[in-house]
Amino acid sequence: MTGSQPRYRIGVDVGGTFTDVAVVDEASGRIGVVKTSTTPRDFVAGVIDALKAAMSRHRVAASDVVLLSHATTVVTNAILEERGAKTALIATRGFRDVLELRRSARARLYDRNQEPPAVLVPRHRRFEVTERVGADGEVVVPLAEEELDAIVEEIGNEGVEAVAVCLLFSFLHDDHERRVGARLRAALPGVPVFLSCDVLPELKEFERTSTTAVCAYVGPLLVSYLERLERATRALKLPPLHVMGSSGGVLDVAESVKMPVMAVESGPAAGVIAAAFIGGQIDEPNLISFDMGGTTAKASLIADGRIEVTSEYEVGADANVARWMHGVGHPVKAPVIDLAEVSAGGGSIAWIDPGGGLRVGPRSAGAEPGPVCYGRGGRDPTVTDCDLILGYLDPDYFLGGELAIDTAAAEAALREKIAEPLGLSVLEAAAGVVEVVDHNMAEALRIVSVERGHDPREFALVAFGGAGPAHAASLARELGIPKIIVPPIPGGFSALGLVATDLRRDYVRTFHGRLDRVSPDEISEALSTMEAAGRAVLAAAGVPEARRRLRRAADVRYTRQAYELTVPIEDGTIGAAHLAKLAEAFHARHRATYGHDSPGEPLQIVNLRVGAIGVLEGLDLKAGDAGNGAVDDARRGTRPVYFKDTGAVACDILDRDRLPSRGDAPGPAVIEAADTTIVVPPGWRARIDPRGVLVVEEGGDG
Amino acid sequence: MADTAPGAFADDDPVTFEVVKNSLYSMAAEMRVVLSKTAYSPILKSAGDFSCGIFDMRGDMVAQGPDLPMHLGSMPLAVKAVIRAWEEIAPGDVFIHNDPYFGGSHLPDVNVVTPAFADGGRLLGFVCLRAHWPDVGGGAPGSYGVETEIFAEGLRLPPVRLYRRGEPVREVEDIIFANVRTPEEGRGNLRAQVGANRRAAARLEGLARRHGADRLLRIMRGVMDRSEAMMRRALAALPDGEGSFEDFCDGDGILEPGETEDSPFAIRLRVRKSGDTLAVDFAGTDPVVRGPMNSPLAVTASGVYTAVKTVADSDAAIPPNSGCWRPISVNAEPGTVVNATFPAPVVYANHEIAHRVCDMVFMAMSGFAPDNVMACSQGTSAILAMGGIDPRDGARYVNYEVVKGGFGARPGKDGINAIAASVANTANTPVEVVEMSFPLRVDRYELIPDSGGAGEYRGGLAARRVWKVLGHVAEATVCCERSKSPPFGLFGGGAGAPARVYLIEADGARRDLNSKEHFLAPEGSEIWYEVPGSGGFGPPSKRDPAKVRADVRDGYVSAESARRDYGVEV
User: Fold this and answer.
1) Fewer beta carbons below 10 Å: N end or C end of chain A?
2) Whole-number mean pLDDT of chain B?
3) For residue A120, which of A140, A98, A100, A138 has the smallest C-alpha distance?
4) Which of A169, A421, A601 lies at the smallest CB-CB distance from B5?
């Protein structure tokens, strides 16, 4: 450690069960993690307690903290639990039902008992105002401003807490929306008003209305939460609070509350950022992140060090119907890290279907009652029970020994419900369940790689979440991925992402034009308006000039398609050469993604995008003292562990904390740490990197 | 049936079986993603009017994607037609066809069939993508004219090669695109179909490489056998019984000399469920009609299959494929509206008869399986097809849209407002997309109060959409049902509101349209489309008055209906 004043970065990730705090010392590159229980009744108190615990454990003075970042589930929870604001919606006359009419397809084809899709604003709080803008952006019917008095009165009588305004074609002509907004704000002080032309100036009225309504619905809650939290962190003399956005990158509180939907996937985004960061630390720019939790598994792809962002997202939908079905959640069109999520995890329940087939999930035992082996009343065998039976998990060292584990109960349940009906041994049944769930989870990896035109064999798999590292090797084999990376703190990994990210604010502007007919000047103009806004945000956040980056991109498609691919635009003044490069990049991307392209076809620009980024100073991680001993010194013992190719074999059990940094542990082996277990199958080897990163690779002499 | 698992995967371990089965289904889902993202027409890219499937070498469907129930019964015939037509099928071949009398459903549904081969050239099976093109020629834009022979309904393409050993067959493409109204759009759609198939065929070939062709083929058969076993069990769990129902369709769209409105025709069916089988007989159903309301038997069967799956497997535990339908028989006399014979026109029947049959099966089974059925849904796909010259750029356009009505009320639950039901699952086209793409303005898109049938559990409301024609004369066709026989309620529940379609001219004059009609919509006129609601379940008098009051507050039910139908004063 140097003699100068220490500088710490702190990240707090509030998850469903645990709150993780990561503390990184910029000078030494050491990471400390503290885990506390999440306090759903008062998130603010929980976050503050966790912060205090972390600062005291790692002896951090508030004055030495240079960055405080936060990932929150407040937005998602408000929607899932229907606890958002009492919201009103104002629409063009004839269209107040757009929010309920949705896209009119159903999520479940044969389910006669299916629930109707949720509607955030009930019909009696949806109002219409006479006005109309046409598809050319011209006013067809002028705004009947005099109708607003009656609407304002009714909104007041209803005790409405937030208002969303979404008029047709407001993305081409925003004057009507702005006038409605001004009138409402003047008449209803204290009631936040969200205009669709601010939130999402893009084509398609349902998606725009839904996104604006979600902002209004969660806005007041997010504002009050962040304001209370910032007051408390300020009282601790900590630096300004930042919030992780769904697209990766943090924002200050003032920017966050302008666009509340940007926090929908705050935690998962932090996890992907952490994966990209770890890859950067060990020179692995091409990664697939794999986060395995209790009920779902998530995957995301990082190509050349860059995360992939999408704007197709539905909040509050089941993971298993999110796959290109119109779901029952609320579509949100805001940049979100491109995650594929499947309903499969440690809590997934194994069952036999009426045809005698072995199924795993989508039902999960969750945290309560949890797997059979937890002894909390769970009777259905889960993936975790099978991991235990196969020897991957140590019954005496579960969660670092904090939980008493009943292996016999897990075996009995698996025997009765799976093994006997299928005529298998208990071990075979457990291996079968794990193989099926691994295959289901591999589908998430396939979606972000193969389906998007990437060859998984050119990527390394970053495995985290408590159970991820136990299953990673099997997934890697399924897709031919040659290398697995297990980060230093897989259990609290997302919190690390919070301190390793940049500041980021995304802007999007609808810009309709055929690429061969648009004027480069108009594109330049639209981009520079957004760039100016981005520069202002970065300046206000105190980012020095040298660390400001502006990334430009366009959403492009063949003129008659409905879905765009996002293609980067190079820096500099836009000219013919820029546009030609843009076209070339689009055709190549289309070919890579879908297997064909049509170079002669005209291209359409649909949106222009600017990402304003404040680059944070780089971090260099270092591990604790790994020592220079031999792998044997890390041996904790042996136990039988089952592998598909070998059956049950006596297997070395190693202690991750005692693995030497130059050692090379051949599989089969199980490496245990307090927050995870890493399975190294026969034919694979594990080594630990000086930065504390564990690398598991196929090959060697095995 | 024995109580233990059937031995369909006796040769393969259950784990490999499950893994391969999941791969087959995710392939079909991936085809859906590729097509949605690359196709050119709103009906495909936004509305999702297409189906994807994986087939064995005999043409039986091993896995259907999460697409349209309407295609459950007829997709296998599309692949079998190719197998029958061509003895020699080689790697790199791609086939195309659309003829309902050779394995198609109606002419706008264009099937692209791609074979998959193991290394060494052994045939593994096929993938097929059936996509509804916005136009395939014929007498009216959208190929939705009221014709009296299939020859007039558009280009009939028997199974022919689109690619031969990897090379495009230009002659075939040229014939196709000389016959459709919007060839550029058609070419884009076709590329998207071929691309999606290529993706799935490659995946199937990869599976063979990984698991061996023998094992893959065995599992493909096993997947169907297992679905059959599961369907038999699900049927066996239902009470045995028999029920029949007679229902009337609005008509075939043809006004005979002297008629001022379309004349109805009858469908009669009897359902008999016994043990692990179910039989549906259409004896007594009316003979083929002159207009395009004649359904190929496979389309009729799709309506039956959708109903049976909803009744017996509501939570979708049974993977949908050809195996599911082996315990179900469908009998209909050739030459009737439910078993069309060449050259009867068919275009409307594809969805309208399938919807009708599905809802009728619920009613026929309500006597012996009352907890497993639902009241009648909208009962129509409610199509509007319009075309003409776009005055903005002088180009020819075709707009094809659907409007959704109610989803029927169920035991213990209200129906659902304005959402696709039974055999259909296409989406609407966003208003802003319609207006940017076509010279039209949508003046209203909203729920219709009181359109849900009254009941202890209220029927779902229908939607109304109104289009104004801008700067040109549009040639339009409407096609819907249940304007005369509104969607029935069950067990004392009231019927949903019937369909109403009318034209309001620029001068305000209103002209009621038949539910199937091909007409000219002058500049400035408005087409009003009010689709049917859905039936209620149980007597309205038993509805919780608090729910009635909440419905009135939200404007789903009027105060007058609350008083009249529910006896609740608001």
Assistant:
1) N
2) 94
3) A100
4) A421
Nearest CA in chain B to A167: B432
The number of beta carbons lying within 10 Å of the beta carbon of residue A324 is 17
Angle at A158 between CA A156 and CA A161, to 5 degrees: 75
ipTM of the complex: 0.93
* Burial (0-12, 13-18, 19+ Cβ within 10 Å), B315: exposed
Contact yes or no for B528/B502 (Cβ under 8 A): yes
- Helices (H) and strands (E) counted in chain A, each on its own, are 17, 35
Residue range A8-78+224-265, CATH number: 3.30.420.40
B/e letters for B497-522, b = 16+ CB within 10 Å, e = fewer, are: bbbbbebbeeeeeeeebbbbbbbebe
A258 part of contact set with chain B, CB < 8 Å: no
Per the DSSP assignment, residues forming a β-bridge with A287 are A302, A460
Q: Name chain A contacts of B114, Cβ cutoff 8 Å.
A: none
**By mean pLDDT, which of A227-241, A541-555, B265-279, B318-332 is the weakest?**
A541-555
Tell me, which fold does domain A503-614 have in CATH? Dna Ligase; domain 1 (3.30.1490)
Do A29 and A620 meet the contact criterion of CB atoms below 8 Å apart?
yes
Q: Is residue A94 within 8 angstroms of chain B, CB to CB? A: yes
- For the segment A267-303, what is each residue's pLDDT rounded down to a tens digit? 889 999 999 999 988 899 999 999 998 888 889 999 9
Query: How many residues would you count in chain B?
Result: 570
Asked if A374 has any chain B CB less than 8 Å from its own CB, the reply is no
Distance from CA of A482 to the nearest CA of B (A): 17
Q: Where are the domains of chain A?
A: 8-78+224-265, 79-223, 348-434, 503-614, 631-698
Q: Residue B412's closest CA among B544, B308, B525?
A: B544
**CATH no., domain A79-223:** 3.40.50
Radius of gyration, alpha carbons of chain A: 26
B314 vs A contacts (CB less than 8 Å): 110-113
CB nearest A135 (choices: B36, B418, B436): B436
Q: Which residue of A has its CA nearest to B1?
A: A355
Q: A366 vs B472, which has greater pLDDT?
A: B472
Total CB pairs under 8 A between chain A and B: 233
8 Å CB contact of A356 and B4 = yes
Residue A292, min C-alpha distance to chain B (Å): 19
pLDDT range class, residue A626, cuts 50, 70, 90: low
C-alpha A295/C-alpha A316 separation (Å) is: 15
d(CA A15, CA B76) in angstroms, rounded, equals 48
Residue type, B323: G
Chain B contact for A105 (CB, 8 A cutoff): yes
CB-nearest partner of A98 from B191, B318, B445: B445
Predicted local confidence at residue A542, as pLDDT: 80
Q: How confident is the model at residue A1 (pLDDT cuts 50, 70, 90)?
A: very low
pTM of the model: 0.89
Percentage of chain A with pLDDT > 70? 95
Q: What values do phi and psi take at A221, rounded to 5? A: -65, -45
Quick one: CA torsion of A507, A509, A514, A516, rounded to 10 degrees? -50
Give the distance from residue A557's alpha carbon to the nearest chain B alpha carbon, in angstroms. 9
CA–CA separation, B470 and B249 (whole Å): 33
Cα A90 → chain centroid = 31
A104-135: per-residue pLDDT in tens? 988 888 999 988 888 999 999 999 999 999 99
Nearest CA in chain B to A564: B37
Per CB-CB distance under 8 Å, the chain A contacts of B554 are: 122-124
Among candidates B14, B410, B463 on the partner chain, residue whose Cβ is nearest the Cβ of A113: B410
